[in-house]
């Protein structure tokens, strides 16, 4: 029996080709950045399956490399999400199909590891009849035909019941937000109310990173929380302004830095159950120092130049709680292989 008979390898092989083909259509910068990373991670899945199978007489070695394959599959899923979130991968149907198949591969690998744990005999592995791992049971999707196309769920989503607006009344308005109360019919067909906060600016976050692996945090007292908060440089950008232009301005205003290299990291909706606020996060590199230009509301702002790994530790230990900061720092950590 060859590793090519393994169902998990067959699926990983198919996905490595599909992911490779997908990356060839990416925009130039992503083709050689996230595109290169996702190609490496999906190929790592199949190669770890192969190496694990080559060591199959040693149970723990077999399981170790299958676990590496699962980790690489998770990494591939994250890279795929980044490409879709940043609109580098624009084909929604292709994203849904790849995401579905990668999640399926993860379940198959998990079931495969359990089969190895159950069917492997360390002391007599050399002499016993070989266990047939080529068909690994996966009760979560027993009817799937890997050669067929899954139904695109977009069309079915469009046919689902939707919220209906009966009337609206503005409750509050200032320079930054508008609060509106709506009389609605919910998807179950029942009347109710819905409060929506409309944001008049986009949320902008920047992770600056110098050539030595250091970053900058800004700290200030957040009135809404009544506590001090360490965050990446952040601010608001006008709805009709390119988020990158706003990011360049905010970085200069809060830290005095300008950057020659910019990378889009994240597009996010920060609280989509009550607001329409949209956020964008960028990585800024090849930095040049200068003087900051703080606003009146930022008079208490403090700037901290520190190792990026220390900022990452602050996220992982809960010392940084700001959502843009968490997303940006974790995204850069993954991008840089930390």
Please describe what this structure looks like.
With 338 residues, the protein is α+β, with helices and mostly antiparallel strands. The protein folds into three domains: 3-158, Up-down Bundle (de novo design (two linked rop proteins)); 164-198, no CATH class; 201-335, Nucleoside Triphosphate Pyrophosphohydrolase (Alpha-Beta Complex). 41% of the residues lie in helices and 25% in strands. The chain is built from nine helices and ten strands. The chain has helices at 7-23, 28-31, 34-54, 59-85, 92-119, 153-158, 243-255, 308-316, 323-335; strands at residues 164-173, 177-185, 191-199, 201-208, 214-222, 227-231, 234-238, 258-269, 278-288, 302-307. The strands form three sheets. The chain has a four-stranded mixed β-sheet with strand order 7-4-9-8, sandwiched between helices. The protein has a three-stranded antiparallel β-sheet with strand order 1-2-3, with no helix packed on it. The chain has a three-stranded antiparallel β-sheet with strand order 6-5-10. Helix 1 packs antiparallel against helix 3. The longest helix has 28 residues, at 92-119. The radius of gyration is 25 Å and the shape is globular. It starts with 6 loop residues before the first helix and ends with a helix. The model is unreliable at 121-144 (pLDDT under 50).
């Amino acid at each position: 029996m060859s590793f090519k008979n393994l169902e998990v390898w067959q699926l990983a092989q198919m996905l490595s080709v599909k992911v490779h083909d997908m990356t060839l259509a990416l925009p130039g910068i992503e083709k050689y950045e996230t595109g290169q990373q996702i190609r490496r991670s999906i190929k790592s899945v199949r190669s770890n399956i192969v190496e694990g199978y080559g060591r199959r007489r040693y149970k723990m070695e077999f399981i170790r490399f299958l676990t590496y394959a699962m980790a690489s599959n998770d990494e591939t899923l994250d890279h795929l999400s980044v490409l879709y979130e940043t609109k580098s991968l624009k084909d929604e149907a292709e994203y849904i199909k790849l995401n579905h198949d990668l999640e399926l591969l993860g379940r198959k690998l998990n079931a495969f590891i359990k089969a190895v744990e159950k069917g492997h005999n360390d002391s007599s592995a050399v002499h016993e009849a070989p266990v047939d791992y080529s068909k690994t049971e996966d009760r979560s999707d027993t009817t799937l035909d890997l050669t067929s196309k899954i139904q695109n769920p977009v069309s079915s989503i469009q046919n689902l019941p939707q919220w209906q607006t009966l009337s609206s009344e503005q409750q509050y308005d200032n320079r930054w937000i508008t609060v509106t109360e709506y009389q609605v019919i919910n998807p179950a067909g029942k009347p109710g109310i819905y409060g929506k906060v409309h944001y008049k600016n986009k949320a902008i976050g920047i992770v600056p990173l110098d050539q030595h692996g250091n970053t900058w945090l800004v700290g200030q007292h957040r009135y809404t929380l009544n506590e001090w908060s360490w965050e990446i440089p952040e601010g608001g950008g006008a709805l009709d302004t390119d988020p990158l232009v706003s990011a360049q301005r905010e970085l200069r205003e809060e830290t005095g830095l300008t950057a020659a290299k910019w990378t889009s990291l994240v597009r996010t909706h920060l609280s989509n159950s009550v607001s329409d606020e949209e956020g964008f996060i960028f990585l800024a590199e090849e930095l040049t120092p200068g003087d900051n230009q703080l606003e009146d509301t930022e008079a208490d702002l403090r700037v901290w130049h520190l190792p990026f790994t220390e900022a990452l530790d602050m996220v992982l230990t809960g010392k940084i709680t700001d959502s843009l900061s968490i997303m940006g720092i974790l995204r850069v950590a993954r991008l840089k292989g930390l």
